[in-house]
Design a protein that fits this description.
Alpha-Beta Plaits, alpha+beta, 6-stranded antiparallel beta sheet, 10-stranded mixed beta sheet, 454 residues, 2 domains
């Protein structure tokens, strides 16, 4: 059996969760998932300002804390904290290890080659159109606005780093699931064409990837009964060589692991349940069988898989104009009516100024912001409503002028404004997402693994 613990579900997750996973019970691996589509574009913007940036910086001080117990307990870490700069991340982690005093007793592996930005024009000239998977438009239509382009990589380079003895493995845009199933493939010697077992690893990775979302966090079923979320236990996969595994957590931690909590995570971002596509295998989620064994233990078995496609997914971010969002809070009585009138006043002023936007959106937080427009009138006795109004467009000057028109409503609009949240709105560049496919032979030969001694 091998134990693979989840320590982060996204960049910004509980900073103490990885420490708890290492300190509160036995594990063999710790996987840390930092990346989402928008995260890559944020990291690329950071690297554009500072060539040494572009990775999850909070991972480095975390490693200063974790290196001593990792070395003592022989725990290995697999993470995609490298973002768009895995080399910079890996080198910073090496320095963190030296600061932690584990010189000569650990090594850091890094995987590079998923970043396609430097090769983008040559790939296009070679006939890789990178068409948008939703609209079928070729990337050439927005090439001049592309900020980042990263292929989703699978287990192969992580396996290579593990085989070379790396204690900490830093990747760029690895698939979330590979951070879990690559260690399973390594430990059990699964071959790439052992589709059912690798597919079981994919399911384990999918359950692990969002941290406490499968141990009672963000739980819909009886959420009010989930105990001790202030010290929630993150998931641990107890895997076997035959592909079966148990989802559990450390004893004495908060949250819960039940068939219900695991099921909720399984259907998260699933798409076609018969074709959950990864770089290494296609998993059939309709074959998953769950057995609730009590005491925070759910057994997962029966998973079936089939061979991977000839393509890898590419996550591309591009500049798509500017936006700004402002808010004002209105108090009872007639809170919603006041907020609506304020929005009307603001829109007339913007029209008088001749400002044009691609989109203007108004929401009443507390009435129609979560579920969209609601028919009918909001109750007159709502104690408070927050007016949230935003604009987007390609004319930065127009968006900037909008940001100056919110504050005047405090004295020139309806009464009972109780809060000017955050001051003047900030103009932000919009990063849009462009999903595409590329033939795997255009990416995989360019992937490389390097192991750095601490």
């Amino acid at each position: 059996m091998v134990r693979i613990a989840s320590g982060q579900g996204f960049w910004g997750d509980d900073l103490e969760a990885p420490v708890r996973q290492v300190e509160q019970g036995p594990i063999d691996y710790l996987m840390l998932d930092y990346l989402a589509e928008v995260t890559m574009s944020i990291m690329q913007k950071q690297r554009a300002r500072d060539p040494g940036a572009g990775f999850a910086r909070d991972f480095v001080p975390l490693m200063e804390r974790l290196f001593p117990p990792l070395v003592e307990k022989s725990i290995r870490i697999v993470t995609n904290a490298g973002g768009v700069n895995p080399r910079g991340c890996a080198e910073a982690v090496v320095e963190a290890g030296r600061t932690a005093g584990v010189d000569g007793r650990a090594s850091v592996g890094m995987v590079t080659g998923d970043d396609l930005m430097d090769r983008l024009d040559s790939l296009l000239s070679e006939g890789h159109e990178l068409r948008n998977m939703d609209t079928d438009e070729p990337l050439s239509t927005i090439r001049d606005r592309v900020q980042s382009a990263n292929a989703y990589i699978g287990a192969a380079p992580i396996l290579k780093a593990l085989e070379q003895g790396a204690d900490v493995i830093v990747t760029g845009r690895s698939t979330d699931t590979a951070l879990t199933y690559a260690p399973m493939m390594h430990e059990f010697g699964w071959s790439a064409d052992d589709y059912d077992r690798v597919a079981a690893g994919v399911v384990a990775g999918h359950i692990n990837e969002c941290g406490a979302q499968c141990t009672g966090g963000n739980c819909l079923i009886d959420w009010w009964t989930v105990p001790d979320l202030d010290r929630v236990g993150f998931p641990i996969i107890e895997a076997r060589a035959d592909g079966e595994f148990v989802v559990t957590k450390h004893d004495g931690t908060g949250g819960r692991v039940t068939r219900a909590t695991v099921s909720e995570q399984i259907v998260y971002e699933m798409g076609d349940p018969t074709n959950y596509i990864t770089p290494d295998v296609i998993a059939d989620f309709t074959t998953i069988q769950l057995t609730d064994e009590g005491d925070d233990r759910v057994r997962v078995h029966g998973v079936r898989g089939k061979s991977a496609t000839d393509f890898l997914k590419v996550s591309i971010a591009y500049s798509d104009g500017y936006k700004a969002v402002g808010t004002l809070t209105y108090a009872w009585p007639d809170a919603a009516a006041k907020a609506r009138r304020a929005a009307q006043v603001l829109r007339k002023r913007l029209d008088r100024l001749g400002l044009e936007f691609d989109d203007t959106r108004t929401e009443l937080v507390g009435w129609d912001s979560t579920h969209g427009f609601l028919a009918g009138e909001p109750p007159a006795d709502l104690p408070e409503v927050q007016l949230r109004i935003g604009v987007r467009g390609h004319d930065r000057a127009a968006v900037e002028r909008f940001t100056r028109e919110i504050a005047p409503l405090i004295l020139t609009g309806p009464p009972s404004v109780t809060g000017f949240a955050g001051g003047r709105p900030r103009t932000q560049e919009i990063m849009a997402y462009w999903p595409a496919l590329i033939r795997r032979e255009a990416v995989e030969p360019h992937l490389s693994v390097e192991v750095l001694p601490v």
